[in-house]
Amino acid sequence: MFNFLRTIKRIKNKNDKIYGKNFKKDKNGKFIVDIKSESLDDFIGEYSICGNKHLIPDIYESIEKIAYNLPLNASGIEFVFEYQKSEGKEKDDMIKQGLVKGFKHHYTMKSLIIEREKKNNFIVSFLCLGLAIFFFIILGLIEIFIYDKVPEAVWEIIVVIGWVFGWEAVDRLCFRIPEFNFEQIKNYRLYKSDVKFKNVKNLQSPKVENGMDDEFLVRAFEKMEEKDNKILSKLQEKK
User: For residues 34 and 82, is the Cβ–Cβ distance under 8 A?
Assistant: First the structure.
């Protein structure tokens, strides 16, 4: 088990370094991510929300994947939207301001939604915990006073219901809360990221290496499989 966890940690650390190499860094260690298109209009989504222009969903999805994979100790992220065709300085500036506002608004709304889900999760988890305690109290009272009069099937049903509510409470408090917190960290990281625009004459696609070290991953799991086979063979010899 510990070998497996150490292997996963090595894979994560190695791929953090490899994935991070795909992006430029400034002198402060901030990652610079270039997003390229022919014109500023190509970045704009079909709809505006609350008067704010938003990026197309594919861009949001891509930058969220980038934020998820970059090392957590990174100083920050700077997204540079490069475009070739200009509609004039005044119109370009208006689009840029709208997109920056829309970008910040998008992750503000995502944070508010997660906060509401987190609050609802707390309410449901404590409700489940209360119901679990209630059913176990009933079990205790039955065992003390009328154990012989209650059919075994009823007893088992109450036990199962109590455990179901109890496990649901544990799952929500111990597992889902950290997920919400991680999502909030990611959203805050994107909200605080810098959004800049750059008009370039010759738009070139960057040469990016594969972010996943597949060869290392395969070797690691092959070694784990060899160890498991050796352990199994030793157990069979003992039998």
Answer: yes
Amino acid identity of residue 51, one-letter, is G
- Give strand pairing partners of 48: 53
C-alpha span between 10 and 20 (Å, rounded): 15
* Sequence-separated (6 or more) residues with CB below 8 Å from residue 95: 40, 41, 44, 53, 87
Q: How many Å from the N-terminal Cα to the C-terminal Cα in the chain?
A: 23
| Residue type, position 82, single letter | E
Q: Answer whether 0.90 is exceeded by the pTM.
A: no
Q: Specify the 3-state DSSP secondary structure of 151.
A: coil
> Considering just the CA atoms, what is the radius of gyration of the chain in Å?
27
Single-letter residue type at 11: I
Q: How many CB atoms lie within 10 A of CB 40?
A: 22
pLDDT at res. 28: 79
Q: Summarize pLDDT for 205-234 with one digit per residue, the tens.
A: 544 444 444 454 455 556 656 666 666 566
Q: What are phi and psi of 227, to 5 degrees?
A: -65, -45
pLDDT in tens, 102-125: 899 989 999 999 999 999 999 999
Q: Please state the separation of Cα 36 from the chain's center in Å.
A: 25
Helix (H, G, I), strand (E, B) or coil at 51: coil
Written as six digits, the tokens of 61 are: 């999805």
